[in-house]
Amino acid sequence: MSARPSGYQQFKDEQVNVNIAKQKPEEVQAGTLCKGGNADFPIDQIPPSFELAELHSQAWNVGTTKLSKSQKRKLQRHQSSTQQNNQDDHIGKICDCCARQVPNHLLSLGCNNRDYSFLGAGMPLYFEYIKSCILMLLIMFVTSGDYNIITNVAFGTSCRALEDHKGQEIDEKTFCQKNWVTQSSLANKRSGSEFIDLQQMLNLISMITLIILFQYFRKEQRAFDAEIDSQTQYASDFTVLLKNIPTDPTGLQNGDFDDDLKNFMEQHIQKYKKLQEIIDYEQDRKQYQIQTKKPVTELRRVVAVNLCYNLDDQYQLEKQKQAKIVLKQKILSNLYSQGKDPLSSDVKSDPQVNQIDNEISEIENQLEALEKRFIEGKDVKNYFLGQAFVTFQWENDVQMLLEEYKLSKIQRLFGKKSQLVYRGANLIVEEPPEPTDVFWENLHITTKSKVFRRLFGYAITAIILILCGGLIYWLSAIQAESAEEQALAVKQGDVKPNIKVKIIAQVASISIIVINALLAMFIKSISLFEKFSTQTGFNISLASKSSMAQFINTAVITFAISTWVTKNIYGAGGLVYNQTYVFISNAFIPGIIQLVDAGTVSKWLFQYLEKRKGPKSVKTQQQLHELFEKPVFDISTAYATILKNMYVVAFYASVIPLALVITCVALLVHYWVEKYNIARRRTIKYNYSSQMSIEMIEQLELVLPIYCMTNLWWEYVFLESISTEAIIGICLGVGNAILPMHEINESMFSMKSEIDEHLPIQEAETGFLTDYCRENPATAETARQQYKIRVEKHKQQKLNMDKMFGDQ
Questions:
Q1: Transmembrane residues, as ranges (predicted)?
Q2: Among 85, 255, 518, 555, whose CB has the most other CB atoms within 10 angstroms?
C-alpha cells in the first residue's frame, strides 16, 4: 500500500484554495480575544462587518470541501481575478472566527445517505433509522394490518348507522356509530371471535418477523458504521481520552502539565512498531527535507495534549463582558436615534462609550491571561480536572493503545485497573467523544450532582405530564356532554351527526400536538439542567424522555381517561374516534410546520432588517454571525418525534389498523422534509456518533412489548378472553426488550473496521470539521488562528513533495 493513497490525492487537489483562503479582518474597537497568528478577529466590534457574517454563514453550509474538476478549473481560471461573484469569492475561504472552510460541494436533496458521513456516522444512520421504521410499519401492515382492515370493513357488523335506531334510546358510550372511522377499526368486528382469533395468530407472526428484523437492523447498522469509519477520518480517530491524571503539580517537568504528559506518552508509544506504510512516508519526507536543504526533523508520534479545565472563571468573565457590551449597545442606540453618524467624532469620542470600551478591554485582558495559562499548562492546579485529550500523528498508534489499555465499564466496576501508570496513577484510557460532542463547561460537575439533577428532572417531567392529563380530561369531559346531547337527539328522532363532537375531536388532536411541542421544550430545558458531559448523552436523554413523555401524553393518558373515567371506547367522541383524528393530524401538521420552517423565515426577516441598518447596526460581530447562521439541526428532537410516532402506532395498531398506513405516510413526509431542510436550511454543529443511533434502536425495541400488550388488552376488552398467541407474543416482546440484543448481535455477526489509509494527522485534518484544541473554550481562540496558518503551510509543503516525487 502506498503511503499516500486517495486521501492524500484529495489533499493535493484542494491546494488551489490556498491563495484565496486569506481573509483580512477589520480593525477592532474594543480589543479582542482571538490572539494568535498575525491578526486578531474582531469578535466584538460594533458596527459589525456584514461581509464577514456572510462568509461565516457559508462556512456553516452543509457540504464538503472536495472540489469537482469543473470547480477546480473555474477557481484556477479566476484565482487572480478580483471580479468574482459572491459565491465563488467565498469558496475555499476559512472563517477566522470558527476556523471552518466554506464547502465547495453542497449536499443535494437526492444524495445518498452515505454522503452525510463527513458529519459523523450518526448522521447517515439517522436517515437509515427512518427507513427502518417505515419498513417496520410496512411489515406490520402486510403480516397483520391488511387482514385487520379487510375483515373490519368487509365482515364487521358490530357498528350500526344512527338511522337504524331512530326514536330509540341509545347509550352514547357503548353504541358504535357506523362511519369511516369505526368501520375500519377493530370495534366493528368485536363480536366476530373467529376473526379475532386468526388476528392474534397473525399478530404473533408479525411480532416474530419484527424480532428477526431488529437483528437485521443491528447488523446493517454496525456494517454501515464500520464502512464509514474505515473510509472517513475524524479527529477522534487520532485521539485517546486519558482520565485519572494526577492534578498535583509536584514532580512535573517545568511545572507544565501538558508538556510533561506529552513527553511521557511520546516515550511510551515508541514500544509500538511503525507500519511499513508509515516508514515509507517518513523516508519520503526526509528525502524532501534533504533535497530542499531544510533541517531534517522527525515527526513526533504525539502531536498535542489538550487538557480539560474547570471553566467557571472564564464563563463568569465572559458574562461580565457581555453585560458591558449590552450597556454599550444601549448607549450607541441612543446616539444613533439622535441622528449622530456612527463614524462621527461625537460617537467615537463619547465618554460613556470610551469608558465601557476600556472596561471591556480590562475584562478581555483577564480572559487572555487566563487563556495563556490554560494553553501553557502551567499554574493551573485549581483548574485542571485530571482529564486530557491526547492526539497522535498516526491513527494506528491510537488503535494499539486502546487495544492494550482500554477497559470496559464492567472491568472497572470490579476493580481492574489499566497498566498505563503515569506519576504513580493508573490512567483510564478511553475512546474519546468527537470534539463537538464534548460539553466542556460540564466536565467539572460531580457524579453526585448529576444524579441529583436527573432525579429532579424526572420529577418535574412527571408533574408536567399530570398537568397535561388534566387538560386532556377537561376536553374529554366536554366531548362526553356532546355525546349525551347526541344520544338524546336520536331518541327524539334527530339522527344528524353532532358536529360539536367532531369539532372537539379535532381540537383535542391539535391540542395534543401543541402540548407535545411544549413538552419537548420543557424537557429540553430539563435535560440541559442535568449537565451531561457529552452532546450524545444529552441527545439520548432528551430523545428518550421526550419521546416517552409525548407517547404518554398522546396515547396512554387518552387511553386511561377513555377506559376508566369516561368509559367510552368506540362511542361518539370515544377513544377510537379521537385517536384516529390524532393520527391524521399528526401525519400532516408537523410535516407542514417543518416545510414552512418558521425559524428560517424569521431569520431571513431579521437579517433583512439588520442589513437595512447598515453601519448603524449595534450588534457585535459575534451576534451578527449567530443571526446569519441557519437554524441548528436538532437530532434529539427529530428522534423523539419518530419514536413517539412508533410507540403510539404500536399502542393502537390492533384496534385502529389504519394508523399503520397513516404513520407510514407521516414518516415518509418527515424523511424528505428533513433531507431538504438539512441540504438547504440547516446548520449542523456536531459530529454525530453511531452511539446515538445504537441507543435509539434500543429505544425502538420498546415497540414490541407495547404492541403485544395492547393486542392482549383489546382481545380481553372485546372477547373477555385471552389467547395463547397473545401470551406468547408478550413473552417474546418483553424478552427481546430485556435481553442485551446489541451484544448478542455482536456475538452473532463479528465485524471490525480497518484503517483504509495511513495518513499523518497534518494531512488528514484538512477533512476534519474541527479538532479538540479548536473546540475547547480554554484554547479555542488561539488554536483557530494557528490552525489556519498550519493548514496552509502543510498544503504548500505537500504540493512541493508531490512535484518532487512525481505525484501530479
A1: 198-217, 455-475, 503-523, 582-606, 649-673
A2: 555
